[in-house]
Amino acid sequence: MISPDKVDYERVKEIAGLVNEVIDDPIEIVGVAKDVLMKAIIETVEAIDDQGQVGRLDPEVIESFNEWTADEAAEPIFPKEEEPATTPVVDPAVEAGEETPPEEKKKKKGRPKKEKPPKPAGEKKKRVGPTPYKSFEELTTWIKEVATPTSAMDKLTLTPHTFDALLSEFKSGYPEFKSFQTVHQIRAHIKYRESKRWVYEYKGEGEKETVQLVGYNG
Q1: 76 found inside a domain
Q2: Which residues form the domain of 111?
Q3: Of 218 and 169, which is predicted with more confidence?
Q4: Distance (Å, whole) CA 37 – CA 173
Q5: Among positive and negative, which fits the CA dihedral 67, 37, 61, 117?
Q6: Beta strands 198-203 and 210-216: pairing type?
Q7: What is the pTM of this model?
């Protein structure tokens, strides 16, 4: 796990909220230290992946998990569709034309593959790695197609809203989601989006300040 100092605490709490959307026993968030919370999220996501239920997770959870565990020796548990080709290991005796004993033939070379449980029928595999959009037009299409708490908030920002209005409309329009409960959480989400080259336009000041998603610098 990367150093907690490199991760914004509000971002960690947001990810915990997104994870809680899909589990029965929610992760405790209030009053929990950042490093403890990150560890709980990582362990929970790994458990969900072991159950073959990764498709239920919000894309931002997957992205954050991979970022937080990027400094570990093991590969991400959500690999890309295509894996790089590996050079086969040739036994010197075989290369020299010598017969290999039967028991040696049975031995596997290299790192054994981790067996994963089968995914439920009809479950779509999440795209991990490059973003699934390269322009603002593709971004807006993606937002409208993905049914997650964060995409629900992103849909609202496609038109100008005050932060209070965003919170009110999110709660009334998406009662099944509990991720955004304060204006501060919405601001933290937008700040994270801006770090990913999403462009927002702000107008006004104070309680009348509005925000709108207007572009993407891909």
Answers
A1: yes
A2: 1-82+91-119
A3: 169
A4: 29
A5: positive
A6: antiparallel
A7: 0.56
